[in-house]
Design a protein that fits this description.
By secondary structure, the protein is an alpha/beta fold. It has 20 helices and 14 strands. The protein has a single domain, classed as Aldolase class I (TIM Barrel, Alpha-Beta Barrel), CATH 3.20.20.70. The protein has helices at about 5-10, 20-25, 30-35, 45-50, 90-95, 100-110, 125-130, 145-155, 175-180, 180-185, 190-195, 195-200, 205-210, 235-240, 250-255, 270-275, 300-310, 325-330, 340-350, 355-375, and strands at about 55, 70-75, 75-80, 85, 110-115, 135-140, 160-165, 220-225, 230, 260-265, 280-285, 315-320, 335-340, 385-390. The longest helix has 22 residues, at about 355-375.
């Protein structure tokens, strides 16, 4: 067992939050704050986690449970837990294993994995690494030609669904990234990187693994016609030229015949438009508080979206999930499953694949304990009768 694996296997690592200080000590400040931070004043980032406290449980005691089933499904794909690993860009900067490590861990655990367009590993390799369902998250970076090529590659590689993110016409202003040099690390020249060298040199273990991995990876899944692979660039500029509109779903559906998930829905109107655009599922998401600061927490937006969908398609939710109790609350309020991003990315940054394994196991144990304490036999049986929801949250 490696030193990193031993660190996350420690009895002291009992919650997702316990990974944060380990990750902070292992990776440079710029990379950690990219993972940990949000947009502007980070109001929505904090609220994503805090708001779970506003929902309380209504347990059923003195209930004999021989077993609790945590099996679920999304889009007909069976999951051992109602959890999928959300797309996390630049994962390979957090650990050389990056997306490959996360996909392998998800497959072993029997849950799904969603690969970000902003991946340092080829989508074909990531798909082959997992034994579970794998979805491809699509940005239109590089233009329509690059997107069409990526969609076709995902189809041939056997990806199970396409996840189209609609909340990123430009990248949110993540102030920590500007202060700590993430932009310079990714796309700056040698002279621009000099002021930030001390933080990199203070993490020699990360630096050695980074150099052995070949240094800064490009974007192997963004192949621009006539130009080749897109290098890691200022994402602000790349996204500003490739905003997704509802009209784009027409041509996306023509070349992708599998299910489509629309990610970034916060209102009933966008939920209904997603259905009209051909979505098989939607994810209630504010991008982890990384886009428009001041929008509602994902859990707060969930009732409105669930009411609008009326069971026509699967509703997923991501944002602020750190515990099994969070998963249970989201399911009680109508989510089919949750997407976890930071929850596993902290583990990845702390200890690579072993960290992702441990993060998933923590959530699994948490959720099973929650079901038993609720007196609920399965995740499929969770509903609003198990929670108290503030009346102000009721969908109008």
């Amino acid at each position: 067992m490696t030193r990193a694996a031993r660190s996350v296997a420690s009895p002291k690592v009992v919650s997702i939050e316990d990974f944060r200080p380990i990750a902070r000590q292992r990776i440079p400040k710029s990379v950690f704050d990219y993972l940990d931070g949000g947009a502007e004043g980070e109001v929505t980032l904090r609220e994503n986690c805090r708001i779970f406290n506003d929902v309380t449980f209504r347990p059923r005691h003195a209930v004999a449970l021989a077993d609790c089933s945590m099996c679920s499904s999304v889009l007909g794909f069976n999951l051992s837990l109602p959890i999928m690993l959300a797309p996390v860009g630049y994962s390979r900067l957090m650990h050389p294993g990056g997306e490959m490590a996360a996909a392998r861990a998800a497959g072993r655990a029997g849950i799904g994995y969603i690969l970000s367009t902003i991946s340092g590993h080829k989508l074909e390799d990531v798909r082959a690494a997992s034994t579970g369902p794998v979805f491809y998250q699509l940005y239109l970076m590089g233009g329509r030609g690059a997107a069409e090529a990526a969609i076709e590659r995902a189809r041939v590689a056997g990806f199970n669904a396409l996840v189209v993110t609609i909340d990123t016409p430009v990248s949110g202003i993540r102030e920590r990234d500007y202060r700590n040099g993430m932009k310079e690390l990714i796309s700056g020249g040698p002279l621009q990187k000099i002021p930030f060298l001390p933080q990199i040199l203070s993490r020699p273990g990360w630096l050695v693994s980074y150099l052995l991995d070949g240094g800064l990876p490009g974007l192997p899944n963004v192949i621009v016609p006539g130009k080749g692979q897109m290098p890691l660039v200022d994402i602000n500029a790349a996204l500003a030229e490739s905003a997704v509109t509802w009209a784009d779903f027409s041509w996306i559906r023509k070349i992708w015949k599998g299910p489509i998930v629309v990610k970034g829905v916060l209102t009933a109107d966008d939920a209904r438009r997603s259905i009209d655009a051909g979505a098989a599922a939607i994810s209630v998401s504010n991008h982890g508080g990384r886009q428009l600061d001041g929008v509602p927490a994902s859990l707060r937006a969930l009732p409105e979206v669930v009411e609008a969908v009326k069971g026509q398609i699967d509703v997923l939710m991501d944002g602020g999930v750190r515990r099994g109790t969070d998963v249970a609350k989201a399911l009680c309020m109508g989510a089919r499953a949750v997407l976890c991003g930071r929850a596993y990315a902290y583990g990845l940054a702390a200890a690579g694949e072993a960290g992702v394994d441990r993060a998933i196991e923590i959530l699994r144990v948490d959720l099973e304990r929650t079901l038993r304490l609720l007196g609920c036999p399965s995740v499929e049986a969770l509903d609003r009768s198990y929670v108290n929801v503030p009346k102000s949250w009721e969908a109008s």
